[in-house]
Each structure stands twice: as C-alpha cells, then as structure tokens.
Amino acid sequence: MDNETKLITVSIVTPNGVQYEHHGQIVVLDAIDGELGIMAGHEPIVTPLNIGSVQVKRIHSHDEQTDEIAVNGGYVEFSNDVATIIADSAERARDIDINRAESAKERAVRHIEEAKKKHDVSSQKRAEVALRRAINRINVYSSKK
C-alpha cells in the first residue's frame, strides 16, 4: 500500500454489539436508492439500506482482500472517513451457516404459500422479508472465495 492511499473505517453494529470493524479503501452498500460506493473524502451521508451485502475492500499484508457481510437492512452514516452501519443483524460470509440459511429459505417459501392460501397479506409480507434475508445470506455465503 502506498503512502497516498487513504483509508476509511467501516464498523457494523447490531443490537448484539460490533459485528465487524476494519479499515478499508472502499465500502460498497445496497442503499435503497441503489448501489453506493464510499471512499475516503466522501461527503457526509446518512441513508437507509436494503437487505443486501456490504463489501469492504481492504489491504491485508500488502494483498487486496474483500470482506463481504450480509446485513438485514438498517442504515449507514458516513462522516470524517468513518462508515457506521447499524443493522438488525449482520454476518460475515465465513460465519454463515449455509444449512441454516437453506432451511430458513424453505420455511419462508412454505409460509408464503400458506399465507397466500389464507389470503393473509400481513403474514405473506413477513414471510417475503424472511425469504429475502435467507437468499441474501445464501448469496453472500456463495460469494466467498
């Protein structure tokens, strides 16, 4: 890493505490208005996030590395080269239990079908959110190298 590379601090916080904290060159997020990339010097911003992944490109022992974290919505606040992401839950790709995620996906699909049969819109919407969360975790897990 050359001396000119400016880094940001990326911190992901859930109700269970800090789940991730590293320095990186860029963080890429799934904001509600589309994909957002933030680097050092970016203007201050606060924006809501979709259920999606957070990617942090960082330097580790002179090698570039990208960490990917599944987050379930929330928001990001960036100022003074610090990105703080507040989310209900967050899991690094390496920590995702793929069997649990696949089971959650299957459960959500069943709940959607049951809710449709009963014309229960509220239950259907909750199950659709659970499905998006499960698919996000599966996708993040699948992206790890």
Task: Describe the 3D structure.
There is one protein chain. The chain is an alpha+beta fold and about 140 residues long. Helix content is about 30%, strand content about 45%. The protein has two helices and eight strands. A hairpin with a 2-residue loop joins strand 5 (about 45-60) and strand 6. Helix 1 (about 100-120) runs antiparallel to helix 2 (about 120-145). The longest helix has 23 residues, at about 120-145. The model has no long low-confidence stretch (mean pLDDT about 95). This is ATP synthase epsilon chain. Produces ATP from ADP in the presence of a proton gradient across the membrane.
Explain briefly what this protein structure is:
The chain is α+β, with helices and mostly antiparallel strands. It has helices at 98-118, 121-143, and strands at 8-14, 17-24, 26-31, 34-39, 45-60, 63-79, 82-86, 90-92.
Describe the largest sheet: 8 strands, mixed
- The Rg value, from CA coordinates, equals 17 Å
- What is the CATH homologous superfamily assignment of the largest domain? F0F1 ATP synthase delta/epsilon subunit, N-terminal
Order of helices and strands: EEEEEEEEHH
Helical proportion, percent range: 25-40%
Structural class: alpha+beta
- Mean pLDDT score, rounded? 93
Query: How many structural domains are formed by the residues?
Result: 2
How far from one another are the termini?
Answer: 22 Å
What general outline do the C-alpha atoms trace?
elongated
Give the C-level CATH assignment of the largest domain.
Answer: Mainly Beta
Number of discrete helical segments: 2
Oligomer: single chain
- DSSP strand (E) fraction? over 45%
